[in-house]
Amino acid sequence: MRDKFTSLAFKTGLVLLIMNLIMLFFVEFNTPEWVITIISISILTIFEIVLFILIRMRIRKERQNENQ
Length: 68
Description:
Helices cover 87% and strands 0% of the residues. The chain is mainly alpha-helical. It starts with a helix and ends with a helix.
């Protein structure tokens, strides 16, 4: 169950990140909407990096447990 949740969170965050990047092209520069989009992209990028690291750590731990 934990793997499914992590995978779902990663995929959902990735879709939101892509949508925000696309939206960035349609929003005027230096407007409040543009600033919110940039903040959202930053938060989602950090979220994705943290999830990627957690997933890799779990995979590495599982491989170590299999080898022992």
